[in-house]
Specification:
single chain, 493 residues, alpha+beta, 7-stranded mixed sheet, 5-stranded mixed sheet, 17 helices, 38% helix, 21% strand, globular, D-xylulokinase activity
């Protein structure tokens, strides 16, 4: 039976699946992994693990479905990340991860000034420089690790690293490139040579390909390592949030996609490249697409931290959080446990829990964490609205949708209906869909129809108004203190 392989390299796990060309999932598998946090603000990952887990999972899936005739491969991964490799394609150091790694915070103004100021950066890239910008991460490595940089020839992200090892092609999808700010022009869809030379001197920039396009074909060496057939096509790939957005058909202006994962990601498709202060302007996965994106630095990471802290299991803690009720019995949390990305762009923000008493339970804390992420989503929505980007509905995907509590809280806080699709396995499903597009005529509405729509409860929404105002005020009231605390634990560089 003809099938496609979709693989996603996430922050906490790599997930893979085989699907028929009609979207029926035949088999799934995953591998858990950890990130490294060598110092406060530094978040890295072993780049060799990406290929090792891809190959291992692929062989496992092929053994589990022996009659699968794999026709194409799609890969996605976390990003924007930076893995430096030498002329022989060997990693030179661990990969620097996306905006949760805040090592560039103190050089953003300096780099902006070097490029002529904020206006030209926004005009060409659509976004200001933040700790999310992979181009600044390259500059940090060039300036702080000159011995490593002297041996660097290329850079990859998780998806492009695996695509390169599968095909021998040095490529990067346009969407991922649009998050290498300030190296990519979101209007002309090309590298900006003079800024590449200034921030990443001597580094060869990859060939640009749209996410669903063919980047190359599986080589004999890759086939031997993975069990895949020689010569089958491989897509250019994408950053995981965009692949997950593809999996639920998010590319409609007026609808915002929410990725419920270790962090929470938001994608609002637009009719053109629109600059929204505090958020990121990117291109989409195919020509003609533009969007404004946002992301929290934590979300599921907080609930996982609480689960480990209390030695609980997911189902029990969700039940306890639901029993806690709206407002978490008077608890209010700021979810900035690793700084925050959009819209406040504050790498020195920290988590705060206000209102604690000895009567509070772990269910109250868990509920407060879920409500905090919902308030963060609303803050991003209000930032979009202020720039003229209208969002009328939400569509969700990701592991956080197990159970209905979290998305229900998000809809109640934002006041927006939210579609939950039939398949919520995430980015690997979107990657499989992109792969299927190389060999068949496919439609995501057929692959993944809606399962249900969560409508906001008007009474709950009114009740959350005061909580949201307090959420915004709490950050303003505590920012100076948490910034001082953050400086005391800053990395020594």
């Amino acid at each position: 039976m003809r099938a496609v392989l979709g693989v996603d390299i996430g922050t906490s796990s790599t997930k893979a699946l085989l699907a028929r060309l009609d979207g029926t999932v035949l088999a799934e598998s995953s591998r858990q992994h950890d990130v490294d946090r060598p110092e406060q603000g530094l978040v890295e990952m072993d780049g060799d693990s990406w290929w090792a887990e891809f190959a291992e999972l692929t062989r496992e899936l092929l053994r589990s479905v022996p009659d699968a005739d794999v026709a194409a491969v799609g890969v996605s991964g976390i990003g924007p990340c930076v893995l430096l490799t030498d002329a022989d394609d060997r990693p030179l150091r661990p990969a620097v991860l996306y905006g949760v790694d805040t090592r560039t915070a103190d050089m953003l103004d300096e780099v902006t000034a070097e490029l002529g100021g904020l206006d030209p950066v926004r005009a060409r890239c659509g976004s200001a420089l933040t700790t999310q910008a992979a181009g600044v991460k390259l500059a940090w490595l060039a300036r702080n690790e000159p011995d490593t940089w002297a041996r660097a020839a290329r850079f990859t992200m998780p998806s492009s690293r695996v695509v390169g090892l599968l095909t021998g092609e040095y490529v990067l999808d346009h969407h991922s490139a649009s998050q290498t700010t300030p190296l990519y022009d979101v209007h002309e869809h090309r590298w900006i040579p003079e800024w590449c030379d200034a921030l990443a001197p001597g580094l060869l920039m990859p060939r640009l390909v749209w996410s669903g396009e063919r980047a190359g074909a599986v080589t004999a060496a890759a086939a031997a390592a993975t069990g895949l057939p020689v010569g089958i096509p491989v897509t250019a790939g994408a950053i995981d949030a965009w692949a997950e957005g593809v999996s639920v058909g998010e590319a409609v202006p007026g609808r915002m996609f929410l990725q419920y994962g270790t962090t929470m990601f938001m994608i609002a498709p637009t009719t053109g490249a629109i600059a929204v202060p505090g958020m990121w302007t990117t291109v989409g996965t195919r020509p003609g697409q533009a969007c404004v994106a946002g992301g929290t630095a934590t979300s599921g990471a907080i609930t996982e931290w609480l689960r480990r802290l209390f030695h609980g299991d997911w189902s029990t803690m969700l039940e306890e959080a639901e029993a806690s009720g709206p407002g978490a019995n008077g608890l209010l949390m700021l979810p900035y446990f690793a700084g925050e990305r959009t819209p406040i762009a504050d790498p020195h923000a920290r988590g705060v829990v206000a209102g604690l008493t000895v009567r509070h339970t772990r269910g109250d804390l868990y509920r407060a964490a879920l409500e905090a992420t919902a308030y963060a989503v609303r803050h991003n929505l209000e930032t979009l609205a202020a720039a003229g980007v209208e969002v009328r509905e939400l569509v969700g995907a990701g592991g956080g949708l197990r159970g209905s509590l979290w998305p229900t809280i998000v809809s109640d806080v934002t006041g927006l209906p939210q579609t939950v699709p039939s398949v919520t396995v995430g980015a690997c499903f979107g990657s499989a869909f992109l792969a299927a597009g190389l060999v068949a005529d496919v439609d995501i509405a057929t692959w993944n129809p809606a399962d249900r729509v969560i409508h906001p409860d008007p009474e709950a929404h009114r009740g959350y108004e005061a909580g949201y105002r307090d959420f915004r005020d709490l950050y303003d009231a505590t920012a100076a203190i948490v910034h001082r605390l953050a400086r005391r634990t800053a990395p020594h560089r």
